[in-house]
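User: Assemble these into one structure.

Assistant: Restating your components, then the assembled model:
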Amino acid sequence: MQYHLNGYQGRDPAIAAINPDCSGRMDNVDVAVVGCGPAGLTLAAQLAVIGGVSVRIFDEKDGLPAYGQADGIACRSMEMFEAFGFAEKVCREAYQVSETTFWRPDADGGILSRADRIQDVEDDLSHMPHLILNQCRVQDFYLETMRKSEIRLEPDYNRRLVALTCQDGSEYPVQGVFECLDSNGGLETVQAKFLVGCDGARSMVRKSLGYELEGGAARQIWGVMDVLAVTDFPDIRLKCAIQSGDSGSMLIIPREGGYMLRMYIELGELRGDERASDRGITPEILERRARKILKPYAFEVREVVWFSAYEIGQRVCDTFDDSANHEDKGRLPRIFIAGDACHTHSPKAGQGMNVSMADAFNLGWKLSLAIRGIAKPDLLNTYSRERREKAKELIDFDRDMARLFGQKPKTPEETALFQRYFQRHGRYTAGVETTYGPSLIVGHGKRQNLAAGQVVGKRFHSAPVVRLSDARPMQLAEMLKADGRWRIVAFADSRDTGEKDGRIAGLCGFLESDANSPVLRYTPKGADIDSVIDLRSVFQRKHRDLDIGAMPKLLLPAKGRYNLVDYEKIHCAYTKVGMDVFDLRGIDRNFGALVVVRPDQFVAEVLPLDDYSALAEFFSNVLVEANR
Amino acid sequence: MQYHLNGYQGRDPAIAAINPDCSGRMDNVDVAVVGCGPAGLTLAAQLAVIGGVSVRIFDEKDGLPAYGQADGIACRSMEMFEAFGFAEKVCREAYQVSETTFWRPDADGGILSRADRIQDVEDDLSHMPHLILNQCRVQDFYLETMRKSEIRLEPDYNRRLVALTCQDGSEYPVQGVFECLDSNGGLETVQAKFLVGCDGARSMVRKSLGYELEGGAARQIWGVMDVLAVTDFPDIRLKCAIQSGDSGSMLIIPREGGYMLRMYIELGELRGDERASDRGITPEILERRARKILKPYAFEVREVVWFSAYEIGQRVCDTFDDSANHEDKGRLPRIFIAGDACHTHSPKAGQGMNVSMADAFNLGWKLSLAIRGIAKPDLLNTYSRERREKAKELIDFDRDMARLFGQKPKTPEETALFQRYFQRHGRYTAGVETTYGPSLIVGHGKRQNLAAGQVVGKRFHSAPVVRLSDARPMQLAEMLKADGRWRIVAFADSRDTGEKDGRIAGLCGFLESDANSPVLRYTPKGADIDSVIDLRSVFQRKHRDLDIGAMPKLLLPAKGRYNLVDYEKIHCAYTKVGMDVFDLRGIDRNFGALVVVRPDQFVAEVLPLDDYSALAEFFSNVLVEANR
């Protein structure tokens, strides 16, 4: 963490100085967020942490419930939590998924047996683990993040959206009318530049736009319960996929705290118009079924913490913003939907909360940059395109998964097929396979060969490095804060020591003084030089072989009111075997590579270190000339 | 973290259920702590976390100040913070000391040059890093820990101890009278079973006992300041020891947040009766001197966050409890002193806060076990003995260090000598070399050969393992919570798989059913079987080669109101090269080893796995037969 830049201040460095312009409850806000679920809180927290934007967030409940149904936290979500600064809190409380085992009747007597076990997250997929933790705790961490931000954001509870309109032309064109469900009663009207519906599968925002979730249910019914239970089933603290001979399938997910577990239990097909709720599913029914599936092992529930029954369905909205309702294609989208409001699917792949948060994380920085005049408003059109594609892919995946999971494996080959599918998709469910297509913020990757492992359109893949100034071993990802900044990560060629004749110095020279430098063009007057575009470098040499005194000034920028030097921009490869970022990420050792990273940690483009005009052009498409 | 054992409960699992018997402000308490510095808070937090004991903690200030002078956090202190559950919070905010560099005039022109650089913490010294963080943040984390404990402990501020007496015979023999410095005024009298003075170098508790700190000052004066500054000195973000040609010595310690740094600056000898305060040291004087030492590098202070001048002195109290004031040698000590109240020394070795917290961590569990009737009161006599010896050793070390630091290096040989000394003592300053001599809680280590790397009298040395139940890679130290429990760590022999004929099963058989079993003899009726002595095992086999179903029941104990199984007792070696705990800690592969660990994480004894009588005898010396 970097702090005390503008003088020593107080105790908890996570508490930002209040920004009086954007804090407090206003009737006119830059962004109104409807819904305090994981998507809404991710969005609100991101806007609050970046700062400079006024935000309100509403929920019809009277507070956050003490139990939420989502629990799976993909590696990619942990990477995002790290950007927000609370990954280690999640780690501390969560269950860590290390292995998955597969059970089925054995070939001999049909006795339930462990058929296979696999590593849950393949090596070097992410520097973060796959975890299980109640979504309420994740929400708590977001609330804390919002509370400590410069706008001291707190949700407005007991506010149900009852009307939503948008009248182009005014500064705050979106009008939301909320019914006050607390003792005061009455209505509250809020005007906003933008409004985002994160209000779940029955989204009022989506309905106001006249949109529907398209798709169908698979007519399979599943029960789910979180329990404290006693069993002699040996893998009860491992993630298990169990396919019994004739009692259906079950998925066991151990939960946080060491005692609780979640079970997803197959309950058969729905008939005719039947709904899951018609079945009158009780915890006792689920326990009986679980016992049957687990036979010959004993299983006894001691406390039912939560249970539900649901039918599998995959549905998605055609578009995630209000542009479809307007003829004018150049018009700015003003209303967005995110999370369950625009896509629903079965919970077993553990994707719901993760994909919803990823929606919001895609949108938040775009809103912030557009509102603050740093980026062109056109940026906002990329949200629906990028996330709709992701949602459709998720739904296809989920349909395959649900189908396979519901099948009775008749042969060992069928079971093996299921296992392979499960394994292959570990990468997918980890959330690191999301790829955004070319747009004004994703390049064509023509020079992808310079950094084969930093794929254009995918998230920047962290690796271990050593910081030059203090010799600290760290992950590159530690620099990728959720602060709304673009990053240029310059990987040096093998000869480069940062000195005058090298490519890194050349790049810094361009960025520091050329009229086309995006750093100069887009950074507002008086702002720190890294406040819009943050340059970082990674050298191939060991840190002890480099001289920090010879480094270009742009890598040691003077910042803040005292012009203190920021010493955290320069990194070196960690030269232990198997830990070198240049090997791990396929960086061209002869030429190095320049990787442009979006504020949401996605790789926007890979370029040669000296292709200054391509670099300048990339940013000219998205950023707005600053008033210097 | 383990939680939800007795049912799902609420949100933050760190918040314990209130214990109505011990919470609330009482006039009669089990333990009164005087002073809210690092020692007092460590003690109060430990008592609060273990639970079952009423505590009050007083301080004459009106709250904790926003700045404290201590900043170094040794690896050993981080291990202790991990036991309290806040190590990762400290990590997140702190500066990590990775390397130390040494500067002196070079042989040619006398220009200041880097003579050497060394790794700060040698490999495998501790699984925790060496960090720098303002003591106020550490105190904040303790306050949070106390606040979330079952007694919801908050300090009583504005209370100055004015009188202290002890009248043996009654249940609450210690009487402390406090002057109320807040608006109410008046006096408050508190009766306690035990009182601990953690009230600093001018300790009122120590004075009440009639004790003095013995020793002398070295008559050297040093200045210290925390600053935000600008310099082109290249190692400004590394810990540096600088010995200039003729301007004295300086130590630079980079601080948390990336910009601040601490400087210890030599200012020469004191004359006659002169005191450090007589010199009228100002930040300007310190800055000028620093600039001279750093020449030819530029150095300019932009903000002085804190400064002070001090003379080096090493002083220690003869005894750390009130027993010296009483003829009766069998009498229980009732009043203790800890931290700066019983030893002072120079700050440069970064030992002050660390040794003070270690004092308290040595005492807290002893008080808790004695008060709750689990251990024999005689245990309390070990505190003064163990910690006085440590303090004396520290003072000798500090004297050597101060002398060496103050010397002008005349030759490269002298500089090299200084560097070697500095390096050799890294181990010492990391806090992991503390060794307690034989007593009723430290054995003679006759079978030390069975576990050469778990030294009797030193802290249990963590290593990576894999947990059997959930395949989670972790550190063994994660199990060593600050919960007042003794631990038996049973390292299995190479053949053992936990099955019936093995040594682990034999040990479990003894502990589960033999009349001499310390687990049976000392665990109160109705308490969980691991609540006094917690058995853990570590197998040599890979976790995939072991069958959890074949493990002895004592390693899978049923606990809490639901008799849920605790799955976190069984570990396996992590078989990656260089990561195997049996190799790392020199465990005898043929015979295995049994390591008894004290509640403060120190190794009490190493025994053969099947020497049941030695194990029984060890515990019979310290624990009290439970009323079963």
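The first helix of chain B runs from residue 38 to 50.
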